[in-house]
Every structure is written in structure tokens, then in C-alpha cells.
Amino acid sequence: MNLDKPCKEWQGAVNNKGYGKLAVKGLDWLAHRYEYTKEHGHIPKGLIVRHLCNNKLCIEIEHLALGTYQDNTDDQRRSGSQIGRKGNSPRAAKIADILEGKMTAEQIAVKHKTSRGAINKLRKTLEPR
After folding, report:
1. Residue by residue, what is the 3-state secondary structure of the chain?
2. Is the pTM of this model over 0.90?
């Protein structure tokens, strides 16, 4: 893992969740999973490929790591410390506004053209358990 290396962003097609996608020999892949598999081989059942840089389009092998869904959720909860790295995603911008604590959920929702409920839901995922 080397987060000092810059992200290498996927330049091809993107799915509706913001991840790079491609087809290889008739199989559909998420770009980060494809890159990880090329470098490290099979992804064991029950594990996922996490973006340690919190950038869904990143395919830099040094930023990708295997983990569980819980690991990924924990990464997302801690992502406030990573916002400076990615910073340009809509989700990261909302998280930054929530963590800053200077706006109400309503103000954040208006700024980001979303619902107050969506902001409150995101805020709950950021609360420590």
C-alpha cells in the first residue's frame, strides 16, 4: 500500500455507481477488480477489492486491497481523513460538509441538490458505533 502515489483513474466506461467497468472475453468486470486480479490472481469468495484512496475510479494497484464488506464500511466511516486525497466526488463533498459541522442537514441538502433524509442517512454512517 502506497497512498503517496497518485491515483491512476480509469478512463473508460463507468457504471451507475461510479465505478469503472469493462468487458474482457465476454465477461463484465469492475475495472478495479480486473486490475487487482491481473496483479494478484483470484479474489477469494467473501472478500472484495477496497479502494484505500476512496476513489471509485482509481485502478492504481498500490491503492487496492482485499477486505471484507465490514472493512469497506469502516473505511467509509473513516473517509473524512481521506477527503483531501479524493475531494472531487459528490459523496466526499457531502462528507466534508457534514464533518465540518457548520451547516444544517437542510443547508447541505440544498447545496448538493439532494434530500435532507439522504444527508441524515449519510451522517448516521459517519457516527462512531
Report:
1. CCCCCCCCECCCCECCCCCEEEEECCEEEEHHHHHHHHHHCCCCCCCEEEECCCCCCECCHHHEEEECHHHHHHHHHHHHHHHHHHCCCHHHHHHHHHHHCCCCHHHHHHHCCCCHHHHHHHHHHHCCC
2. no
